[in-house]
Design goal:
The protein is built from five helices and 16 strands. It is an alpha+beta fold and about 290 residues long. The longest helix is centred in the first third of the chain and has 12 residues, at about 90-100.
């Protein structure tokens, strides 16, 4: 992979609209967008207009028979905002898909977690599988012990770096940088919950308790696609503090790493990319034998 400075860095301003879909980058092969929170990627229901496909193409663009087909090479949950890569043709989709499959892409998320995290850096290695409970058809479960009941668990790995502590509505919270090494369904939400710090506003993984915040605070902030001809480094603006519904209820605590400008965020990503943990309060979470 080329050095960061040789990547194409795309950065655009944030459009202040509840349902705006901002195009961050577009060429003959790809559209890369900033997806709002609480929006579906697509839907088979032609009456459902709250979808990415409806905003950038047509309601059926995710179907192979569409006159304007699009190919989603990655997914974001309904509640998650941020960078989403969409291919315009099958060849481009296969090319990007190989990068994701071989774990050559790099993805970085910002999140706000409930509570003050007791470490600075962590590797979370809990496998993730489906929750077999009848009432939890869309939930996933981490394998944190030999008594886990998750179905068909697959290995999963997330890195977590603490950026800043503070409070939201007088309750302790922590702003973190998350780097998923694998890409399991709900992986970041499950892993954060597994280490005792659910994502602020995550209704599903707090058993429908955390419903007061206006959104779930998880945002895909940066995506690196190391294409040979034109490597791409796509970044969105910092998503939370520009939102007055959050910033008006926030009180800062201790800062660990700057992250609110594009340059500072890249520096924080460099920290989480490092292998060494000398001088950092580090923890590793994995299934103990």
């Amino acid at each position: 992979m080329k050095h960061f400075s040789e990547h194409v860095l795309i950065f655009r301003g944030f459009i202040a609209s509840n349902m705006a879909v901002v195009k961050l980058f577009e060429n003959d092969d790809f559209i890369i967008i900033n997806k709002p929170h609480d929006m579906y990627i697509n839907s088979d229901n032609e009456n459902e207009k709250n979808t990415v496909t409806c905003h950038i193409a047509s309601h059926d663009s995710h179907l192979s028979g569409s006159s304007n087909p699009l190919y989603f090479v990655q997914r974001l949950d309904y509640s998650t905002s941020g960078i989403l890569c969409i291919a315009k043709n099958k060849t481009a989709a296969a090319r990007a898909g190989r990068l994701f499959e071989k774990r050559l892409t790099r993805k970085y998320y910002l999140a706000v977690l409930r509570g003050h995290v007791g470490f600075e850096l962590a590797d979370i290695h809990y496998a993730v599988g489906a929750d077999p409970s009848p009432q939890s058809s869309h939930k996933m479960l981490p394998v944190v012990s030999s008594a886990s009941i998750s179905e068909e668990p697959r290995s999963a790995h997330t890195r977590l770096l603490v950026l800043e502590t503070g409070s939201y509505c007088e309750d302790p919270v922590t702003v973190v940088l998350l780097k998923p090494i694998t890409g399991r369904r709900h992986q970041l939400r499950v892993h954060c919950s597994a280490v005792g710090h659910t994502i602020l506003g995550d209704y599903t993984y707090t058993d429908r308790v955390d419903s007061a915040p206006h959104r779930m605070f998880l945002h895909a902030t940066r995506l690196i696609l190391p294409f040979q001809q034109e490597p791409l480094d796509i970044q969105t603006p910092e998503p939370f503090f520009s939102d007055t519904e959050f910033s008006s209820k926030w009180k800062p605590g201790k800062g660990y790493y700057k992250y609110k400008t594009p340059e500072d965020f890249v520096t924080a990503c460099d920290v989480i990319d490092r292998d060494y943990t000398v001088g950092i309060k580090y923890e590793e979470f994995c299934l103990k034998n």
